[in-house]
C-alpha cells in the first residue's frame, strides 16, 4: 500500500485501516491520526492549534469589504453624483423625461420641484428627484462632464 492513498481519508477510517493492516503498531496509528487531523483542519479551513490569528484571520473579511466597495458602492456613488449634477444643471426650457415616462418641457423651477408642460399645454408639478437621466440628450450630458 502506498501512503498517498491514505491522505484523503477521514481520521477514523485511516486509524481503522492502519490497525487492520497492523503497520508498525501504535506509531503508525499516531502518525495517521496526526496526519488526518492536519488534513481535516486544512479541508475545513480551521486555524491550526496553538494560535495563529492576527491580521491573517481578518484578511479575507477585509478583502470582501474592499471588493464590495470597489464594485458596488463606489460606482453607485459616482452614478448618484452625476445624476445630481444633471438635475442641478437643468434650466427653464429644457426637455426632460420623468422616471414615470412623462415627457415634458420645464416651465418653472422651484426649490424642490419643477413645473413641466406636457402635450396639450397641460402643466404638471413634479419633484426634482423624479427627473430621469436616461432621456437626457447627448449634448446635455457632455456639458455636465
Write the layout of secondary structure elements.
Elements: H1 11-21, H2 26-43, H3 55-89, E1 95-98, E2 103-109, E3 113-118, E4 122-127, E5 131-132, H4 138-144
Antiparallel strand pairs: 1-2, 1-5, 2-3, 3-4
Helix pairs in contact: 1-2
Give a quick summary of the entry.
49% of the residues lie in helices and 17% in strands.
The proportion of residues in beta strands is: 15-25%
Question: For this entry, what is the oligomeric state of its chains?
Answer: single chain
Number of helices: 4
- The pLDDT mean sits at 76
Distance between the termini: 71 Å
Structure summary, number of beta strands: 5
Helix content: 40-55%
| Shape by Cα distribution | rod-shaped
Work out the radius of gyration: 33 Å
Largest beta sheet: strand ordering: 4-3-2-1-5
Q: Which regions have little confidence, pLDDT < 50, spanning 5+ residues?
A: 1-9
Structural class: alpha+beta
Biggest sheet descriptor: 5 strands, antiparallel
What is the H/E string? Answer: HHHEEEEEH
Amino acid at each position: 500500500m502506498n501512503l498517498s492513498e491514505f491522505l484523503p481519508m477521514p481520521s477514523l477510517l485511516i486509524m481503522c485501516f492502519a490497525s487492520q493492516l497492523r503497520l508498525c503498531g501504535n506509531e503508525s496509528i499516531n502518525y495517521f491520526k496526526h496526519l488526518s487531523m492536519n488534513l481535516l483542519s486544512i479541508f475545513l479551513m480551521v486555524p491550526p492549534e496553538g494560535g495563529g490569528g492576527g491580521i491573517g484571520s481578518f484578511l479575507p473579511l477585509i478583502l470582501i469589504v474592499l471588493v464590495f466597495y470597489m464594485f458596488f458602492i463606489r460606482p453607485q456613488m459616482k452614478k448618484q453624483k452625476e445624476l445630481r449634477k444633471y438635475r442641478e444643471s437643468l434650466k427653464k426650457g429644457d426637455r426632460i423625461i420623468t422616471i414615470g415616462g412623462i415627457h415634458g418641457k420645464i416651465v418653472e423651477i422651484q426649490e424642490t420641484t419643477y413645473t413641466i408642460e406636457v402635450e396639450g399645454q397641460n402643466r404638471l408639478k413634479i419633484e426634482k428627484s423624479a427627473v430621469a437621466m436616461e432621456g437626457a440628450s447627448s449634448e446635455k450630458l457632455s456639458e455636465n462632464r
